[in-house]
Write a structure and sequence with these properties.
Layout (H helix, E strand, L loop, with lengths): L1 E7 L15 E8 L2 E8 L8 E5 L6 H9 L5 H4 L4 E5 L19 H6 L1 H8 L4 E6 L1 H12 L4 E7 L8 H13 L2 H9 L2 H6 L2 H11 L4 H12 L18 E6 L5 H10 L5 E6 L6 H4 L1 H14 L9 H4 L2 E8 L10 E4 L4 E5 L7 E4 L1
Parallel strand pairs: 4-5, 4-6, 6-7, 7-8, 8-9, 9-13, 11-13
Antiparallel strand pairs: 1-10, 1-12, 2-3, 3-5
Helix pairs in contact: 7-9
């Protein structure tokens, strides 16, 4: 029986006073499907993969990932890994609007751009971190190039193509809603949009007044025309690296992520369901996501000496246990956390975990 230690989560830390973001260098490279822009932060570390991010529709790498990678506790991770942040074509800051009739790449073609980036940088392996459309793109890349992907953190992934009912609902929504409102409905839960918090107001303003809104619509159309990834547990069409699936409770893509979890190898997949995080956990709960990312990296054999400061400072003596699924499969540990309490697994890596935090 695996034992789990319950812990108390303390307050989350922002970027430390006086601490400035690390210098970054932006590059562009030509690919068979057009030019792609990406930003490199840090310097390559010997025998370590690059952390490689890909953002969702309506965002760029800054609006999607800055709150996470500038978070105080994330600094230990970024000191150990070089980061490559990709902007989908036409999504980078200052990008010109594509000419009328421009054929935007499909999500499969966006995935096929990644080898050009890695070849340009002379990087051999990556740990991918993707959100929404970006999670799909990184998954497609991992299916095509499994030897170059050491791990994946997939937030809000929907690996399924749109069915007829989805298409009908999408078309009907398009008759009554603007493109920005449709994208906001993709990014955030209805509860968040109804609450109209400062975060929602900020991102509504970013998307509604984006100078490259025509480009964003093209990326949105490519996402809605995605093919099914055809994941199937036990088949050859699966992710062969460690995977951490992340979704917020009541997020628009909760059901899709749960279904994705059921189709992946349970010995390689962790499932993190975050309470009080809405549709974008990397924006609303960067501290908890950072902590989970550290455990994920440790399970892959990196950062073994990392101190889990927020959890270890408040560890309690209470223990709970999880039952074995069956004799032929790795145990499945179900962990649950509220916004004020949490659980910490003490067993070996490689088991499927369902975590609500």
């Amino acid at each position: 029986m695996a034992e789990l230690q319950e812990v108390q989560i303390t307050e989350e830390k922002p970027l430390l006073p006086g601490q400035t973001p690390e210098a970054a260098k932006t590059h562009s490279v030509e690919t068979p499907y057009g030019s792609v822009t990406f930003t490199v932060c840090g310097t390559p570390k010997p025998k370590r993969p690059a952390i490689f991010t890909y953002h969702d529709v309506g965002l760029n790498y800054k609006s999607c990932f800055q709150p996470l990678f500038q978070f105080g506790d994330m600094q230990e991770i970024i000191q150990n890994f070089v980061r490559v942040h990709v902007d989908a074509p036409g999504m980078e800051e200052g990008a010109p609007v594509f000419p009328l009739g421009y054929q935007y790449p499909s999500l499969d073609q966006l995935a096929d751009m990644i080898p050009c980036i890695l070849q340009y940088l002379n990087f051999s392996t990556i740990i991918g971190v993707g959100v929404g459309a970006g999670a799909y793109i990184l998954s497609r890349y991992a299916l095509n190039h499994p030897d170059t992907v050491e791990g994946l953190v997939l937030i809000n992934i929907d690996p399924n193509a749109k069915g007829w009912m989805d298409w009908a609902a999408h078309k009907l929504t398009g008759l009554t809603s603007s493109i920005p409102e449709m994208i906001l409905g993709h990014l955030f839960s209805q509860e968040e949009l109804s609450g109209n918090s400062e975060l929602i107001q900020k991102y509504r303003n970013i998307i509604t007044h984006a100078p490259n809104l025509e480009n964003i619509e093209l990326y949105w159309n490519s996402y809605n025309n995605r093919r099914d990834l055809n994941f199937e547990r036990g088949s050859e069409i699966t992710l062969k690296c460690p995977v951490m699936l992340v979704v917020g409770d009541q997020a628009p893509h909760e059901d899709a992520v749960v279904e994705c979890n059921s189709k992946l190898d349970p010995t390689q997949t962790s499932f993190l369901k975050m309470a009080d995080s809405g549709g974008q956990p990397q924006l609303t709960q960067p501290g908890k996501l950072t902590e989970a990312f550290k455990y994920f990296l440790q399970g892959m054999g990196y950062m073994a000496s990392s101190c889990m400061t927020r959890l270890s400072r408040s560890r309690t003596a209470s223990l709970t246990s999880a039952a074995s699924i069956d004799g032929n499969r790795s145990r499945s540990r179900t962990l649950s956390q509220s916004s004020e309490s949490g659980t910490l697994s003490s067993g070996p890596p490689g088991h499927t975990m369902e975590v609500s935090c």
